[in-house]
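ok new one. same drill as before - structure tokens go in, u give me an amino acid for every spot. 252 of them this time. try not to just spam alanines like last time pls lmao
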């Protein structure tokens, strides 16, 4: 694809702009900002990745992964204002998922230990983990606030913070995992995933593309479970003070 051909795809940006203008949605500015930002960010990342892939230096791979984790933390932390220390808790969650998944992949030689594989897979996993963290935090804070009376009753009867909030925590974990599980039930029937489609377009054998896509599918499922569980058990204590009293929860 040439730059000229790519520029023609801006026709698709006109569709939401025209619809927003016609229906008075007021989304024209946000649409333009999103278009410009995505283009600039992706082009910049493309040049950076080209350099990293060619250099194959471990330090650059680590820096790229840390950059992705940092960006994910910065974006997700806005949904966790009610959780004290949410920044480091998100960082620990994303870092743990990265270490566990890459540790298994590389130690069992499932994928080569090259920048091309490590960074590409890390980007998909960290991005998915970020979205799941946002879903979890949003649902968890809502559950805690809506069941405040129940939580305080359990505390008054001598229950621990963990016991009083366990039901809400499990509901939030379940709710954040459902989208991943449901999407995987129809994968290949309703949608052809991006990694598989990209490989096929690039000329790869469809069976090999399916094998790599299944790898990502299984990784995303593990990521969905680990993100909610790790972040949940790191965060629940933040809703209580040192006297085990439930604090006021800020919800959007």
């Amino acid at each position: 694809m040439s730059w000229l051909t790519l520029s023609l795809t801006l026709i698709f940006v006109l569709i939401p702009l025209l619809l927003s203008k016609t229906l008075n949605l007021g989304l024209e500015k946000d649409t333009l900002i999103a278009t410009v930002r995505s283009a600039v960010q992706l082009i910049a990342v493309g040049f950076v990745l080209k350099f990293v892939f060619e250099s194959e230096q471990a330090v650059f791979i680590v820096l790229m992964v840390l950059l992705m984790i940092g960006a994910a933390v910065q974006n997700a932390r806005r949904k966790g204002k009610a959780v004290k220390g949410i920044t480091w808790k998100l960082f620990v969650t994303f870092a743990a998922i990265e270490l566990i998944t890459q540790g298994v992949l590389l130690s069992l030689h499932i994928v080569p230990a090259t920048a091309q594989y490590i960074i590409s897979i890390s980007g998909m996993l960290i991005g998915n983990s970020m979205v799941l963290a946002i879903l979890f935090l949003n649902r968890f804070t809502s559950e805690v606030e809506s069941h405040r009376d129940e939580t305080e009753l359990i505390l008054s009867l001598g229950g621990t913070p963990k016991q009083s909030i366990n039901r809400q925590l499990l509901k939030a974990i379940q709710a954040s995992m459902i989208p991943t599980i449901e999407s995987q039930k129809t994968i290949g029937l309703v949608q052809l995933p991006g990694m598989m489609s990209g490989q096929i377009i690039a000329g790869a054998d469809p069976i090999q593309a399916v094998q790599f896509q299944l790898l990502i599918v299984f990784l995303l499922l593990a990521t969905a479970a680990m993100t909610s569980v790790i972040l949940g058990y790191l965060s629940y204590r933040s809703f209580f003070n040192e006297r085990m009293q439930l604090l006021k929860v800020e919800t959007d």
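Residues 62 and 119 are 9 Å apart (CA to CA). and btw DSSP finds ten helices and no strands in the chain.
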